[in-house]
Design brief:
This protein is α/β, with parallel strands linked by helices. 34% of the residues lie in helices and 20% in strands. The protein has nine helices and 14 strands. The strands form four sheets. It has a five-stranded parallel sheet. Strands 9-12-13-14 form a four-stranded mixed sheet, with helices on one face. Strands 4-6-5 form a three-stranded antiparallel sheet.
Length: 292
């Protein structure tokens, strides 16, 4: 992403969180994105809201307490498409498979934004065998409707000094290849399984990538955490790529981090205008925010 700062004009008119018009590329209304803090370790609060989409962690405790098939089925019975969150380009040190990844020499530099999280050699067969495929298998076995794939942006953040012979272009191609492989594997086991990467919408320019995904998740298109207008050049670039994916028939799950009522209201209006499923929450994703 380019660090050059320019002003991105946001035409965020005031408005409510009413239901957006139905289109082939948009959900009926917003979504819920919660990765921790499930009351009692249960999904009852999300089910009670009956969102069209919900993104939840594979595990109720962010570690080894994985959600069971009956729990996912109950959430799906509320009319919700349930996507399993997991990372494909990095790994947190509290995950139960972290030690195995470390032992196999797959770890690279730490992500400065998230201490304790390390980027990985995601192009290595051992990464597929140790990290990605087991998580896909778990999501499929638990009855999730799809996978919400975080950290494709690893290709931008890996310290090139740790991977001699690689450049950003080659890393981007390898990330796109990984997403394509995930899609082929999952859909071979369940044809309707949805593949939704988060962020890095510019990967749409990589051959095979748009065909491999069903939707895209994107953070901080309009507000960065928290309540800070996104005015950097990459914000406009991300929006253009997301709109192109939407116009190509992909659904969009957009999340911004804001708490000021006027910002939440403006975001809901903008999501509706863009035909995005929208969610406004806090960066910790430990409670239910506003679905619009």
């Amino acid at each position: 992403m380019c660090p050059t700062v320019v002003v991105l004009t946001l035409t965020l008119a005031a408005g409510g969180c009413s239901e957006p018009p139905a289109t082939s590329a948009a959900s009926d209304s917003g979504w819920i994105y919660q990765l921790q803090g499930y009351p009692g370790g249960r999904l009852d609060e999300i089910a009670a809201r009956r969102p069209p989409y919900a993104v939840i962690d594979l595990a109720r405790d962010n570690s080894a307490g994985y959600f069971r098939a009956d729990e996912i089925a109950a959430l799906r019975a509320a009319g919700t498409t349930v996507l399993a969150y997991f990372e494909i380009g990095s790994i947190e040190n509290f995950r139960p498979d972290f030690a195995a990844v470390q032992d196999r020499g797959l770890l690279l530099n730490e992500w400065s934004d998230w201490p304790g999280e390390r980027f990985g050699r995601y192009w290595e067969p051992a990464w597929w065998d140790t990290v990605v495929r087991p998580r896909l298998d778990r999501a499929l076995a638990a009855g999730f409707d799809g996978a919400y794939l975080d950290t494709p942006l690893a290709y931008e953040e890996i310290d090139l000094a740790r991977v001699p012979g690689w450049d950003r272009g080659r890393l981007a191609r390898a990330m796109a290849d990984l997403v394509v492989r995930i899609s082929r594997y999952a859909k071979a086991h369940r044809p309707g399984f949805r593949i939704v990467p988060q962020n890095s919408p510019e990967l749409r320019h990589q051959g095979g990538y748009p065909e491999a995904i069903d939707g895209v998740g994107v953070e901080e298109l309009f507000y960065q955490a928290t309540d800070v207008p996104c005015e950097q050049r990459y914000c406009a670039e991300n929006l253009a790529d997301v709109e192109a994916l939407r116009d190509g028939g992909k659904f969009v799950l957009a999340v911004d981090y804001a708490v000021k009522p006027e910002h939440v209201q403006a975001l809901c209006t903008r999501y509706r205008k863009e035909q995005f499923a929208g969610y406004v929450g806090v960066r910790e994703l430990d409670r239910i925010g506003v679905s619009c």
